[in-house]
């Protein structure tokens, strides 16, 4: 299945899941507590986004000041942004996914996975069995006046 098809399927099914969950929770605890819970998770998400985003930015600056590559921070930044956006989206499924993106230990493991498996292939271009020898052009160079 192509990535566009998967994305289309997610965009199509998530709202139905969210509506179903909102109706189920609303039926259990009532309409006003459900609305309060959705608004509360959005406010908590905004607070966590600000707090963890600033902490990641400070670690980013500290790594640069030490002369190190802030690789984890560069991966964690978009994960934090995605988590905040999911928490600001009304619904319980997106809230669960958003909180998962804002858990530091889980976010660090996601960043480690991306760095170890995908970034090296993307930067080096050596994925799917390619080796540096295949990409090298051989020849001779001679400068003529």
Automatic annotation (TrEMBL):
GO CC aspect terms: membrane
Protein name in the entry: Exlusion protein FxsA
Taxonomy of the source species: Bacteria, Pseudomonadati, Pseudomonadota, Gammaproteobacteria, Methylococcales
Organism: Methylovulum psychrotolerans
Transmembrane segments: 6-23, 30-49, 79-103
Domain of life assignment: Bacteria
Keyword field: Membrane, Transmembrane, Transmembrane helix
Residue ranges that the Swiss-Prot or TrEMBL entry lists as coiled coil: none
Statement: the UniProt record of this protein carries the keyword GTP-binding: no
Pfam families to which the protein is assigned, alphabetical: FxsA
Annotated NCBIfam families: PRK11463.1-2
């Amino acid at each position: 299945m192509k990535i566009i098809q998967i994305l289309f399927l997610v965009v199509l099914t998530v709202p139905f899941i969210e509506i179903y969950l909102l109706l189920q929770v609303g039926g259990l605890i009532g309409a006003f507590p459900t609305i309060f819970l959705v608004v509360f998770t959005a406010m908590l998400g905004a607070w966590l986004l600000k707090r963890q985003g600033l902490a990641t930015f400070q670690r980013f600056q500290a790594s640069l000041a030490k002369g190190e590559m802030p690789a984890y921070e560069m991966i964690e930044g978009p994960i934090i942004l995605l988590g905040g956006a999911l928490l600001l989206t009304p619904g319980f499924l997106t809230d669960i996914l958003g909180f998962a993106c804002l858990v530091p230990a889980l976010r660090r493991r996601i960043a480690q996975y991306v760095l170890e498996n995908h970034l090296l292939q993307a930067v080096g271009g050596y994925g799917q069995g390619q080796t540096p020898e295949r990409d090298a052009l051989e020849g001779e160079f001679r400068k003529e006046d």
